[in-house]
Design goal:
Helix content is 39%, strand content 21%. The protein has 204 residues and is of the alpha/beta class. α1 (25-35) links the parallel β1 and β2 (39-43). It is globular.
Length: 204
């Protein structure tokens, strides 16, 4: 899905962080990279793996080449125009440190639980996230489907590897630095949600 994004190929690199996976992810990514030079694999050494998402993102940050960074979780399926919509919104307003899109549930019709999760996510984003931005110019990074300026990220100290919720924690530091995060609901990415109560409880 990332390779299918409508974005100039010479202005995009895709860094996949393999943080200690044991399912062959790294080998599949390396094979895909032979056909598409935009794809780069970053394997976290075993002795440093499993330290959390913030550590994985900070490792990737060290090898990035561009001034804007997009973050997508491994289960995300962004719409082809999602990245372009986010980047356009970011460059239009110099006050913005980051922009975040809308996430939807691609397995929403699996069962009653996934339907409720889908409704919950749409209600949160459509009422709380959109309302905070409209009335207060406040929006929170959700952890996926967002683009952030590299210089701002580095100036506020990168991702905090001790934070329980790195996205919310980073949002606070961005606002403390006098910058904004904008909600862009037209930039859509689809994600997988838990299909059983046991997995849902562990996630939450």
């Amino acid at each position: 899905r990332l390779c299918g994004l409508h974005y100039p190929a010479d202005r995009m690199e895709i860094i996949v962080v393999d943080d200690g996976s044991t399912d062959g992810t790294g080998d599949l990514v390396e094979a895909a990279g032979k056909d598409d030079p935009r794809i780069r694999l970053l394997r976290i050494p075993t002795d440093r793996s499993g330290r959390g998402k913030s550590a994985a993102l900070n490792s990737a940050l060290k090898i990035t080449r561009f001034e804007a960074l997009a973050v997508y979780d491994a289960d995300n399926r962004p719409e082809p125009d999602s990245l372009a919509r986010l980047c356009r919104a970011l460059v239009r307003d110099g006050r913005l440190a980051a922009v975040t899109g809308l996430f939807r549930v691609y397995n929403k019709n699996r069962n009653l639980l996934t339907r409720f999760i889908h409704l919950e996510s749409l209600a949160f984003q459509g009422i709380i996230q959109a309302g905070r931005w409209f009335f207060l110019r406040v929006a929170f990074l959700p952890g996926t489907n967002y683009v952030i300026r590299r210089d701002v990220l580095e100036s506020v100290g990168r991702w905090d590897e001790a934070a329980l919720a790195e996205d919310s924690e980073l949002t606070f530091r961005i606002y403390q630095a006098g910058r904004l995060v904008k909600f862009v609901p037209t930039a859509v990415s689809w994600e997988q949600e838990p299909e059983t109560l046991r997995v849902w409880v562990r996630q939450r």
